[in-house]
Amino acid sequence: MKVHALFRLLAFSGMRKGEALALQWNNLNFKDGEIRINKALARGEDNQLYIKATKTKGSIRTI
Questions:
Q1: In this structure, are residues 10 and 17 in contact, taking their beta carbons and an 8 Å threshold?
Q2: How far apart, in whole angstroms, are the C-alpha atoms of residue 25 and residue 28?
Q3: SS3 sequence, the chain?
Q4: Is 41 in contact with 22 (CB distance < 8 Å)?
Q5: Domain ranges of the chain
Q6: Sign of dihedral through CA atoms 11, 15, 25, 34?
Q7: Count of beta carbons in the 10 Å neighbourhood of residue 47
Q8: CB proximity list for 46: less than 8 A, separation 6 or greater
Q9: Over the stretch 7-55, which tens digit does the pLDDT of each residue have?
């Protein structure tokens, strides 16, 4: 069921997979129905996961 929720989030918001996986609770605003995207999850050396800036560097998108 978690995969279904992730798929719907990606399909209806247009956000990238790495951006969705980097979301934290403080990025969600339930009162106004908004999601703020300001970081993404990526793989570095030795397949280590790390948080990086979004592809459009420095840009914070609100959906």
A1: yes
A2: 6
A3: CHHHHHHHHHHHHCCCHHHHHCCCHHHEECCCCEEEECCEEEECHHHCEEEECCCCCCCCEEC
A4: yes
A5: 2-62
A6: negative
A7: 6
A8: none
A9: 998 999 889 999 999 999 999 999 999 999 999 999 998 999 999 888 7
Identity at 35, one-letter amino acid code? I
Q: Residue type for 6, please?
A: L
- Which residue do the tokens 């979301």 mark? 23
b (16+ CB within 10 A) / e for 2-31: eeeeeeebeeeeebeebbbebbeeebeeee
